[in-house]
């Protein structure tokens, strides 16, 4: 049984300087999601999509974990295999913070793969300055290892098993508007978990949340995690 299962979204990286998607000034205001985050958009203009992801990849190299990421790493250290983290984020900051018990369900900005032979590449091993990157094995186009709209996220089977076996399911920094992630809180609740949310605004799936803490993850999580650790030490 997992004591704490946590799902994070773009909001936990906001205090590291990364734009969210749906807040005022969010990414989807500037880039229509169907153009840069869909297989159809990539097929129509692979260069435009690659430029968008190269920009986000380069930014991800510059940003650092904030107290919210660090607090979740601390909770992992304290709870061990009674803790697991799922993120919708592709920025890699949870890995930079040292989180190991981590599932990146929407992929990773630092990886790409061939659309034909599916050979995997790291972004820092390919030429990002030229035209659209090409597979050295078969000559087809490479695409970012990002789960786009209309595609199936990674690790759904593992996630489903954890949602059915957790005492507390906590969502942090997510609008609760994109499925299947937005539906995780319903599954957890159906299987008896207590549900918690830490978010700047009320998430769309608030009706399934037992405890809601409104505010910034970087400000709330550190003391929230210390209390969990204090309580679990008895
Ligand atoms: N602390 C906590 N919450 C915050 C903070 C913060 N510092 N800043 C913003 N938020 C909240 C916002 O109020 C918003 O509800 O984070 C949420 C971010 O919501 P979205 O921008 O919709 O991001 P997310 O929920 O991660 O989107 C889910 O949609 O576009 C796709 O694949 C993409 O993974 C993404 C998915
Ligand atoms: Zn190939």
Report what the structure shows.
The chain has helices spanning 11-14, 27-30, 33-36, 39-44, 46-62, 67-79, 93-96, 156-163, 184-190, 217-232, and strands at 2-8, 83-87, 102-104, 107-114, 120-122, 142-146, 166-172, 194-199, 211-214. It is an alpha/beta fold. The protein has two domains: 1-18 and 64-106 and 153-234, Rossmann fold, CATH 3.40.50.1220; 19-62 and 109-146, SIR2/SIRT2 'Small Domain' (2-Layer Sandwich). The chain starts with a strand and ends with a helix. The mean pLDDT is 96. The structure holds adenosine-5-diphosphoribose and zinc ion. Adenosine-5-diphosphoribose (APR) binds next to helix 1.
Fraction of residues in H or I helices: 25-40%
Q: Which kinds of small molecule does this entry bind, naming each only once?
A: adenosine-5-diphosphoribose, zinc ion
Q: Which blocks of ≥5 consecutive residues have pLDDT under 50?
A: none
Which series of helices and strands comes N to C?
Answer: EHHHHHHEHEEEEHEHEEH
Radius of gyration: 18 Å
The number of helical runs is 10
Label the structural class. alpha/beta
CATH class of the largest domain: Alpha Beta
Order of the strands making up the biggest sheet = 3-2-1-7-8-9
In CATH, what is the homologous superfamily of the largest domain? TPP-binding domain
Give the distance, in angstroms, between the N- and C-terminal Cα atoms.
19 Å
Q: Output the CATH topology of the largest domain.
A: Rossmann fold
The proportion of strand residues reads 15-25%
Number of DSSP strand runs: 9
The mean pLDDT is: 96
User: How many structurally independent domains?
Assistant: 2
Query: Major sheet, described briefly?
Result: 6 strands, parallel
- CATH-defined architecture of the largest domain: 3-Layer(aba) Sandwich
Looking at the structure, what is the overall shape?
elongated
